[in-house]
Amino acid sequence: MSAALGRFQANPRRGADGGGRSRDAHASAASIGLWVFMGVATALFSLFIVAYVMRMSGEDAITIALPWQLWLSSALLVAGSVALQWAVGASRGSDPARARRLLLAGGLCAMGFLVVQLWAWQALLSAQVMPAGNPAGSFFYLLTAMHGLHLAGGLAAWTWTAQDAWPEPARAAWRIALCARYWHFMLAVWLVLFCLLGWVTPEVARFICGTS
Amino acid sequence: MNAPLSTGHAVPHTGDDAGHPAPQSFLTRYVWSQDHKVIAVQYACTAIAVGVVGVVLSNLMRLQLGFPGQFEFINAERYYQFVTMHGMIMVIYLLTALFLGGFGNYLIPLMVGARDMVFPYLNMLSFWVYLLSVVVLMASFFVAGGPTGAGWTLYPPQSILPGTPGHAGGIVLMLVSLLIFIVATTMGGLNYVTTVLQARCEGMTLLRMPLTVWGIFVATILALLGFPALFVSGVMLLLDRTLGTSFFMPALVSMGQVTGYKGGSPLLFQHLFWFFGHPEVYIVALPAFGIVSDLISVHARKCIFGYRMMVWAIVAIGGLSVVVWAHHMFVSGMNPYFGFFFATTTLIIAVPTAIKVYNWLLTLWHGDIHLTVPMLFALAFLCTFLIGGLTGLFLGNVSVDIPLSGTYFVVAHFHMVMGVAPLLVVFGGIYHWFPKVTGRMLDDRLGQLHFWITFLGTYAIYFPMHYLGVLGMPRRYYNFDGYNFIPPSAFTMNAIITVVALIVGVGQLLFIFNLAWSAWRGRPATANPWRAASLEWQTPDTPPGHGNWGPRLPVVYRWAYAYGEPGAAEDFIPQNAPPQAGAGEPEPEGQSEVRGAPA
User: Fold this and answer.
1) Residue A18: per-residue pLDDT
2) Whole-model pTM?
3) Residues B125-165 pLDDT 10s
4) Nearest-CA neighbor of B129 among B99, B105, B97, B152?
């Protein structure tokens, strides 16, 4: 027990003045805060996934054909994640211009992802898959919207980070690292959701729920 | 013990130690404040104000139950609206907000030796978003059709169908308000957890934290994991109501009209709701457990018995609370093996809970008990929680729960265990920490009067309800005309309960008057009027100033329960009093460590 709790021992002293909160302390707090938030988001999406499986095991559920745009949006999210990871390395190195370019690319890829997701919505609506029609369609719009909202929140943080990092990326390397971590998390969530929407069909859901 | 005892490094105090600038104007000091102490008071005042609405609603319900048909304005629709709003207000907007937003905000930084929460701006946002959720909820009183009367569980399909009061705007505003509240709770929760993990002062190990912090910490983790379930169910129900999706709504005919819904699962909503709903009981109870531990220790002048066991009991209760939710659904029908599982896990929770009760009693045993107002409330909590907990053992068993679940026995049980018991702790906590918050004491005579009215009154209200429940008196009913199995004595009992409820309701005005009067005119308090050992009482200023600790952060040398140490100058040793070189230092479980420097 003590060993487990020992990971969070009291900080001996923070900041140059023995009482103020230095940048290290702030970065450490932000890092813990982000881990905790990712835990909350994991709980949220896990519950959505459980709800999806339970509801899709119903007799009225059908499978919908996912629009091809999702592959494009997924690629964009992967690219954004990679770009931000490289931006972390560049910001800690001696190439601030590269760090700026990669940071910008990470944000733009995420914006592109959101635009393509909306394009996918448009494609589904054109195919008469309405939010209120079938649970598969309802969940598609709901889950992609929830994921998109979380990513939009990440973009707000990215904007703040970009403003802070632009003059001197090395100073804000820790902020870029946090953005990169969140992008990886959002990518992982999206990949799980994509698999769920694509492969957890009513038959699979009924098998999981034992109602087949 | 007015002087600061910390031995941090003497360095000039800078203005932004707290992570935000010192307030320069009335607006930044009291309105858009990022100071955790001001935000705590904002949270508490808002929660108490909305709680008053909840109490008024309960009294209106009681008027109908005690004197049916005597008050024409209380028709069936309004009765159900009162029930629903009372339940939701008390559980979510009063108790959750007050324990986490009020006590959590005020006490965590002070008790762990931090200058503020680690994210002060987010903390400020948390309060304003909470206030928005309250405004949206209250707005439902003024929309066409009024607030929802679906019952606080908001079960579909009836919650969003015509025929249920407030099915037009009320239910929508309720769901929107809940979603906003969850956002606020998440913002606050991130702060509390991160502050506990990252911003403790030197020497404040996790196992030196007061149990109040442990209770709020674990409750916050539960909130962060449990509220997403309410969010998921709330969003999906909102979409069923507004967009016509069928997440929860089955195909049905309502008021002679075929609805467009098909295939939804009401049971799915119940699972999601109670996956949040049961941890919610402990989101309220765990902070109460922590606070009452501190009240008992301070006012009995004795170290808490079995500190480590108490910590582990809090953690175990928190862990178990997420695997018991379906005991709220025994009557919905389930595989007997599931019923067995959930009954078993429910009963297992009694073990760590009983450990806590025994430890409180053993702390009191041979203690130097001071019957101050906070201590009276703490003792009243024990009496109330014991009854509520024991009746929980009844209801945790499937075979006993099924006949009782629709009766007043359940109303009695949950009001005692998660309504009255935590509220008694809220009162005790406020009487205890008010001197630190305002620098003044609450009036003792008013406090005593308030205590006896509240304790005896609530016992008189809820204890007889067990008997009403055993008689088979159904809950959720607007009136009981034509139920011949209910004896006349039950109606007499209901009338008595109503009279007592009105007295208790009005009695709370004493408390509110005491708060307002004492904040301005109360007897000035010393820095540590209860002679407590925990860190929040060792601040250089009372009330604590910006950044809490002046130029030096405190340094902690021991746990928060060093009372009655042999050889000590006083009967308590503050957490930050430097040890005498070579002297034994009290630690949990009677360990005595020889040290001259902080751990």
Assistant:
1) 39
2) 0.93
3) 999 999 999 999 999 999 999 999 999 999 999 999 999 99
4) B97
pLDDT of the residue at B394: 93
Are A131 and B199 in contact (CB < 8 Å)? no
Among B245, B267, B337, B557, most A C-beta atoms within 10 A, so best to mutate, is B245
Cβ atoms within 10 A of the Cβ of B199, count? 28
| Cα angle B189, B190, B195; round to 5 | 100
- pLDDT classification of B333: cutoffs 50, 70, 90: confident
Nearest residue of A to residue B20, measured between CA atoms: A21
Q: What is the ipTM of this complex?
A: 0.91
The 10s digit of each residue's pLDDT in B467-500 is 999 999 999 999 998 888 999 999 999 999 999 9
Six token digits for residue A80: 């954004």
Chain A to chain B Cβ contacts (< 8 Å): 148
pLDDT at B589 over 60: no
* Alpha helices, DSSP H, located in B300-397: 307-320, 336-364, 373-396
Handedness of CA A76, A78, A81, A83 (dihedral sign): negative
- Which residue is associated with the tokens 């983790």? B221
Question: What token pair was written down for A119?
Answer: 């394009």
Signed CA dihedral, A128, A134, A138, A140: sign only:
negative
Collect contacts of A6-11 with beta carbons under 8 A, ≥24 apart: A8/B197, A8/B198, A8/B206, A9/B205, A9/B206, A10/B200, A10/B201, A10/B202, A10/B203, A10/B204, A10/B205, A10/B556, A11/B198, A11/B199, A11/B200, A11/B201, A11/B202
Rounded alpha-carbon distances, angstroms, from residue B350 to A128, A184, B218, B362, B388: 53, 41, 18, 18, 12
Give the H/E segment covering residue B257: strand B257-258
Return the number of other C-beta atoms located less than 10 Å from residue B482's C-beta.
Answer: 6
A19 interaction partners in chain B (CB closer than 8 Å): 8-9, 11, 13-14, 17, 115, 547, 549, 551-553
Kindly report whether the peptide bond that precedes residue A169 is cis, defined as omega within 30 degrees of 0: no
- The pair of structure tokens assigned to A172 is 């804000």
- Quick check: A2 pLDDT over 70? no
Do the beta carbons of residue B309 and residue B303 sit within 8 Å? no
Could you tell me the pLDDT band of residue B22, with boundaries at 50, 70 and 90?
A: confident
pLDDT at B2 over 50: no
Q: Pick A12's closest partner by Cβ from B194, B202, B272.
A: B202
What is the widest separation between alpha-carbon atoms in chain B?
Answer: 84
Amino acid of residue A207? F
DSSP secondary structure string for all residues of B136-181: HHHHTTSSTT-S--S-TT--TTGGGSTTSTTTTTHHHHHHHHHHHH
